[in-house]
């Protein structure tokens, strides 16, 4: 994706239309830009899940999403300018900045935004059970 021209990027526009991403905002994670920076960084790095997909598009900077594989081992995903990721509802994950300590990202949602993170363990939620069922089906 063309992060320098995200406001007019036809590819981003098509993704938003096709996936019904009707709501978006932009967040800057940097000590001078994010209120309660230290607290937020710790919260992002705490292993958690959401009941809805988490969609992030990196406009500037870089960082890492860590997710668990089917054997519960960590996989680190490096994200940089122009990258987009969709973390499915129910997947345990966390986010951290890299050595640059800066990222500007677009957050996308289907409908109204939901910010609630459920720290591990959160295995009883239907979203987690559905995700685990998906993993079991994919393994066959």
Automatic annotation (TrEMBL):
GO terms for biological process: L-methionine salvage from methylthioadenosine. GO terms for molecular function: acireductone dioxygenase [iron(II)-requiring] activity; metal ion binding. It is found in: Cell membrane; Nucleus. InterPro entries: ARD, ARD_euk, RmlC-like_jellyroll, RmlC_Cupin_sf. One of its GO terms (cellular component) is nucleus. It catalyses: 1,2-dihydroxy-5-(methylsulfanyl)pent-1-en-3-one + O2 = 4-methylsulfanyl-2-oxobutanoate + formate + 2 H(+). This is acireductone dioxygenase (Fe(2+)-requiring).
């Amino acid at each position: 994706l063309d992060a320098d021209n995200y406001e007019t990027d036809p590819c981003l526009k098509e993704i938003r239309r096709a996936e019904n991403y009707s709501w978006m905002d932009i967040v800057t994670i940097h000590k001078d830009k994010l209120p309660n920076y230290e607290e937020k960084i710790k919260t992002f790095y705490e292993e958690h899940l959401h009941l809805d997909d988490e969609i992030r598009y990196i406009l500037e900077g870089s960082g890492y999403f860590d997710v668990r594989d089917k054997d519960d081992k960590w996989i680190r995903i490096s994200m940089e300018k122009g990258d987009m990721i969709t973390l499915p509802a129910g997947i345990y994950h966390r986010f951290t900045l890299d050595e640059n300590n800066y990222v500007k990202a677009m957050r996308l949602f289907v409908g109204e935004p939901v910010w609630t993170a459920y720290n591990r363990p959160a295995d009883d939620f239907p979203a987690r059970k559905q995700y685990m069922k998906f993993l079991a089906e994919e393994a066959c």
